[in-house]
Sequence to fold (478 residues):
Amino acid sequence: MTNIFPVILCGGSGTRLWPLSRKSYPKQFVPLIGETSLLQDCAERLRGPADAPYAKPLVLTNEAFRFVVPEQLAGIGIDPGPVLIEPEGRNTAPAVLAAALYLAKTDPNAVMLVAPSDHVVPDKPAFHQAVAQGVQAIESRGDLVTFGITPDRPETGYGYLKLRHAPDATGTPVPLDRFVEKPDLDSARAMVDEGTYLWNSGIFLFAVKDIIAAFQQHAPDLIAPVTAAVDAAKTDLGFIRLDAESWSAVEDISIDYAVMEKARNLSVVPYAAGWSDVGSWSAVQELSNPDSNGVATTGEVTAIDCNNVLIRSESSAQEVVAMGVENVIAVAMPDAVLVASMDKAQDVKQAVAALKAKGAKQAEELPVDHRPWGWFESLVVGDRFQVKRIHVHPGAALSLQSHHHRSEHWIVVEGTAKVTIGEKESLVSENESVYIPLGEVHRMENPGKVPMVLIEVQTGTYLGEDDIVRYEDIYARN
Fold:
């Protein structure tokens, strides 16, 4: 039986689904459709069928998300395999090559199933069957396989795959003729009518040795720096950190441009069982089971006499009411609200660019700040004070630290905190408080088996997150 190693690409900033998806916490970590995140859905899908489970997933991500990835996978009972940390984003070609070189050290004949972490593929059995079709093309011909989505409309937001002939109903792989860039509407209509064009899903399947050979032939300049980055990688708290100096010499290029558009041994598995890259709020509306009037709502929403709308409230304390509106997207966050015409769904990233230009922190940062030990959110911010809610996971601990410009009051409201202030350690239970003077070395930990929540009141002349001097940190943050 062929060993299938899922490779999950988990980078990106996700500006098209602002304000819910932001650079600090992009769409793959957000429960856009249902209760689980897109990353969790992807990992669950890549467990494989019951009769042929796949290997543990290899995940490529960046420094900012290295703790979020295993936390989310553990949340659905998946023990991740290797987590490779890219020093900086270099697009999909270097990421895929790094994964292939890493896997080649133990099994060069393994088959890699490469998938973005932020797609929706609802029919898992159909997807597994499509993968099985692709494996046959690899075993019989040594092909590089991609998956093409049968289009149900003329879409200008996707690239296309031109097949050498129309696919049949069996899902048998078809040789690829060429890649086609995102078309205009008239061209998209013509391609859909012709029947030999499929959407490019960005999902790939190939043997490790075959994709390395393809890089050697078509993108040889990537081989040396990526190999050096993998060979000089360091293990850090269970993560595999690719060598930064070698990685800095790697070209920023997609796997399509680097290899796929040049290779001649490509096959396409046709797939018609449902797929979305969730690339806009209009796509979210389609996936959110809208009613007969096209009304899709999430959270505390009341929609009256509306048509073709997506209305979301992302806070249980915030009621959103929409009356008599049509073709509208409205997404309400505690710190930002998006209201847009449905036909502007692909242009949301322009709003993010405008916010960045004016220096608005909402462009890239969420009000909830996720950390390795849990998360915190600012509830009230004044000139010389700030109130936060802090959630610490069971067994987790903040760094041993001090501040130059602020003192802090901690009030435990759930669970029990183990608090270090100077040389003194104490347990602070629910409804108890403690004071940390300015400049005092301190730490909080959660020694329990349930989350610990406290309210922190900061007072001082400067309250920024960069006013932290770390002395010890179990998460090895600088």
Q: What stands out?
A: The chain has three domains: 4-271, 286-357, 368-472. The chain has a mean pLDDT of 94.
